[in-house]
Known about the structure:
The chain is of the alpha+beta class. It has one domain (about 1-90). It has helices spanning about 1-10, 30-40, 45-50, 75-94, and strands at about 15, 25, 30, 60, 70-75. A 3-stranded antiparallel β-sheet has the order 3-5-4. The protein is globular, with a radius of gyration of 15 Å. Residues about 15-20 have low confidence and may be disordered.
Amino acid sequence: MAQSLAADLARNGLYPTGGIGSQDQVDTFLRLAAVKQATGLGRSTIYDLMAEQPPQFPRPVKITERGKAVAWLASEIAQWQRDRVAQRDKGAAA
């Protein structure tokens, strides 16, 4: 699972769906366990960051009409990771 998650995040979670040259993209859903593994954050920290105003972590999407199943978009988690690295590098340059 870790290898496939790393490959998904390396591709920003986006996959072409309409063949060569298609602009249609499908994003990968990541469940909480995969988000925790990718970010190194715990469940409470993830939800605390989402509760801040403005939110400091991507919000999940409901993946079922009924029920409470949610997932995060791999591309948004990858962007959050890139933002953390940029923030670190910006602080190091100052």
